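As a warm-up, study this chain.
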Amino acid sequence: MLVILASCGSAERSADVRPLGGDLALMWSAEATLAPRLRTQPPPLLLPAAFPWGDMLYAKGGEIVCADDLTGRVRWTAEADTGSAIQAAACREEVAVLEPGTGLRTFSRDGRQLGAWATAELDSALLATPGRIYVAEGDRLHAFEPATVRRVWTWRAPPGQAFLGAAASEENVAVNVFSDQGPQGETFALDFHAGTPRGRLLGRTLGWHEGRHFVWREKLSEVWIRDSLTGAYLGVRKLDSPEGPVLLHEGEALYASVNRYFTEGVARISADGARELPQEVSAVREMQREGAWRQPWVGGARLDGEILTDVRPDRITAVGARDGALHWELKAASGIRGFAVGPRCVVVLTGDGRVSCYRRT
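Now compare it with the structure written out below.
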């Protein structure tokens, strides 16, 4: 998604966003302009986008703007339809931009448009990997070559089954559709090259790691592991009372759970003799990586590479996915509308209409 900015802004501290801890330093902040095309339209949904090579993308008026994430200096611009919820994602060397109701475009890192694909579908979503771009449109999933926007294949959900989402890695892709067998739905593993189904199983794809396909079976609280190519069953992992998000990092499950802690009863000496205080029980919602770490958790969970974030309406807390150690924390009095975690910076869009960029020192 894109951020609409009024200017590149300055490096003065944003009064609304306050770092509470960790390794962040404010680089620049800017006023945001949330302007739809027509006065009768609601403002578009705008979220930051950051790319691996150190750039960020936003929208200003009727333009897409690519800027350096550390300085806010504009690198290139392109015309855009800002009346829709613009989405953006990075491939290996390309930037993919999807404007629902208008279409898909790709740009080189220096701003040259590489290709385009038109669609009038408003219900669409963008997913990108180093070698593929995917657009979920209604009950279809389209695959494109990033450099040309040539459509490679199209997969369509079976009749009567609603499309719930998709997941992809560099050489794998899977789609999740509604199933009457449980709330987790049903997964179709697709051939990366042709888009034809390679396997069909209950559950939702968490991801892939070292040739293994991990599928979440919510009804059973289990992660099923299968061979990425053949679909052969490799094992199952039972999670301890998961509640909320389940994510995958390096083949290990990260998930929220309500854990109970017991405080032993103690003896107290009083005037009429010893009395034993009752045992106390406390329940704490925690995010955990089995056998590695456990942290108190309040909001939703999102994984950006090695950074796992606790997302609340007015606060973001980031910990390391591998060790659970605190990396940084931000709080915004006006609320947080969206954020992006890049290799160098964290970009935050707040409810008071400001965008702030913090360097990860």
